[in-house]
């Protein structure tokens, strides 16, 4: 489906595990949009069941104790946090809002609807004992004569192969049914004689950070106070060949004492009305801990936070409202309505990620990111980039779609364009831009060393481990190259290609359209070399071309007085395992009793940005010089000696001899580049 899940590394780059990557492969699958008018009823019945009562009580007092953030108005922006009504009655959620908040839509004309069957989804969260979502779909106005009706719950997030139970008690018109392994079942015509259909089932929901959740992070999960889910793998849809209606859903939350947040209608309590534009979106049942709505510069952003941590809603909304107008200007496509974010807690300590759907963006943030926000008042740059990246997927990803063969474009170009616009909007500094582009190049080159498939090769599975890195990183480098070329030649930007795709007849774009756009823009040579060919653009020369000045800065080296020869494969970027061949008798290594013949297999933490060695650095005793952090007070060396493992602690000495070539943004020389 048209979702893009984007994992971002935090400070020290740690590759995401294989599980998320395997799942990522699925994202590229495209499903025909659901072709019916749909009504979605969502009911939160926390009051039912033994633990349910306790939870409701806890939740209410918990929230009362904290209160909800009321953000201040500032400048030309206004923000408000709506206090959640303590008692819910069956009233329209719109009454809790100053005006209806419609989901983001890029302005475009819609096809006239044809047939109008009606679909009503009812979702109930049952938290007692074995927490589960009780879901039923009632379809009316179906035509038996149409035939070929398929009931489908896509295997997005790979629920079908999960080792734990997920979908349970599926019934169609009361009769037990089983979906095929592809998540579909052809509905027998006999069921359609009355033009109606009722599908009911349960989805088991596991706790945040549980083994089940870690294995299948895209399936619904719950915390103490809420359940979060994607529409894609929770709400069955009906497909009929030939039907071509946009999906419209009206959400009701009624007869309960709690709250729903949906990507298509926002926060509501009581019956909630809203449109579900496609069979794709996010929803959460239960009260958010923080909630903010910001209007600024014509952009509207709503953020609901379920992570119990520092309030990030305003910070996220501010970044999004700063970026939205620049994205609209660049692409020529204005957004209307509200962009909605849900903030969830990451079950990992290291990896924050985001997923953009046609109706709502979910950001899953680490505790570390929240701590940074608490301590500095700012989200880390990696999270700012993540927000910018996900937000641009509203244009390239959710609106403009590819079939999975152009991940290098949908992800790489999104990554670059969002990064550049983050500088334009003042979210990221020009210095960070340069650092990030150099980092992207390092990652791309490390991966490309194992062979880089050509982007024009439509048979590549870009969601596979190595290929995915290439797609994201080399794709971003290519976008940078295209941007610089267009800036130099015609004072245009890479967004011209996005504009060209929007001029296409369909929102599904093909490689040929990218080729044509590049040709029209005079970039045939770039297409040949970097899309049909496998070259990688060099970030440094592009950076100096657009206005960064190079400056050499000295950097200290970390001296251990140990000479080694590498005992591992040359292809890796690491300096261990290495066999000690000589030890400086007066050096730190000698003091720690490191002996010739020892094999060094580990040396603690690595230097993040290793400096180069100047040519006047002595040839001997170079082990670790530019690899061990210059701030290290002691270095734990893991050794193999006579087949036994031991660790010694070396107290290093700092010596001169390292240098870094840094890039400094020169606003005079670079005038115009970041003005979009
Ligand atoms: Zn992405």
Radius of gyration: 27 Å
Number of domains: 3
Structural class given helices, strands, pairing?
A: alpha+beta
Number of strands: 33
Identify the strand order in the major beta sheet.
Answer: 1-24-25-23-21-20-3
Strand content: 25-35%
- What proportion of the residues is helical, as a percent range? 25-40%
| Mean pLDDT level | 80
Query: How many separate helices?
Result: 15
Give a structural overview.
The chain has 676 residues and is an alpha+beta fold. The chain folds into three domains: 29-374, no CATH class; 400-546, Neutral Protease Domain 2 (Neutral Protease, domain 2, Orthogonal Bundle); 552-663, PDZ domain (Pdz3 Domain, Roll), CATH 2.30.42. Helices cover 26% and strands 26% of the residues. The protein contains 15 helices and 33 strands. The strands form seven sheets. A seven-stranded mixed β-sheet has the order 1-24-25-23-21-20-3. Strand 20 (290-296) and strand 21 (299-305) form a beta hairpin. The two termini are 31 Å apart. 48% of the residues are buried. It binds zinc ion (ZN). The site of zinc ion has 6 residues, from strand 1.
Quick description:
With 676 residues, the protein is α+β, with helices and mostly antiparallel strands. The protein has 15 helices and 33 strands. The chain folds into 3 domains: 346 residues, no CATH class; 147 residues, Orthogonal Bundle (Neutral Protease, domain 2), CATH 1.10.390.10; 112 residues, PDZ domain (Pdz3 Domain, Roll), CATH 2.30.42.10.
